[in-house]
Design brief:
A hairpin with an 8-residue loop joins β1 and β2. The chain has helices at about 5-10, 80-90, 125-130, 150-160; strands at about 15, 25, 65, 75, 100-105, 110, 110-115, 115-120, 135, 145. It is an alpha+beta fold. It is elongated and about 65 Å long. A two-stranded antiparallel ribbon has the order 1-2. Strands 3-4 form a two-stranded antiparallel sheet. Strands 5-8 form a two-stranded antiparallel ribbon. It starts with 5 loop residues before the first helix and ends in an 8-residue tail after the last helix.
């Protein structure tokens, strides 16, 4: 398989001249109209751009009840790690905020308090991944990706559909 080098991109593009023999080439000027195929005089449609990536988040947003402690019944519409951290910080953590302060997860998981100890800064990610299983599906291969932030890496490096060699 041929892979272009940087020198290939420094040379002007060449295409058959429209008003002459199809085997005589002219330099393409990006300011000119698109060139037509020399035989059909129609615009070449062999290039088909890739479709845009679909949004990784489902719509409409599913609201999830907060289960931190016993007294919060707020329906959460942002269940990302950052959204959960904002909610926990605003409604549940007492005293001054310090991301290095350690505490226990108070999320009620199947009628049992989680109780796992961690830094305050980890609460949002912990709840999203462990308790809410905030997975997203790859739009190409339907694999569950553990966190929305890992979807792009999966698509670029590991997805069997997008990483297929031609």
């Amino acid at each position: 398989m041929y892979y272009p080098s940087w020198e290939d991109f420094s040379r002007p593009l060449m295409a058959p001249a429209l008003d002459s023999d199809p085997f005589i080439f002219q330099t393409l000027d990006p300011r000119q109209q698109p060139l037509c195929h020399p035989y059909t005089q129609q615009q070449d449609s062999s290039y088909i751009p890739a479709p845009p990536l679909p949004e990784p988040f489902p719509d409409p947003i599913k609201r999830v009840p907060c289960r931190w402690g016993n007294d919060c019944h707020i329906l959460l519409d942002d269940v990302s790690a950052a959204g959960l951290m904002r909610h926990i910080k605003e409604y549940h953590l007492k005293g001054p905020w310090n991301k290095k302060t350690r505490g226990t997860c108070e999320w009620d998981h199947r009628h049992h308090r989680c109780g796992r100890e961690m830094a305050y800064a980890s609460f949002g990610k912990h709840v999203a991944v462990v308790h809410l299983r905030a997975n997203v599906k790859c739009p190409y291969c339907d694999k569950d990706v553990r966190r929305p932030g890992l979807l792009e890496r999966h698509i670029l490096r590991y997805c069997p559909i997008t990483t297929r060699s031609s």
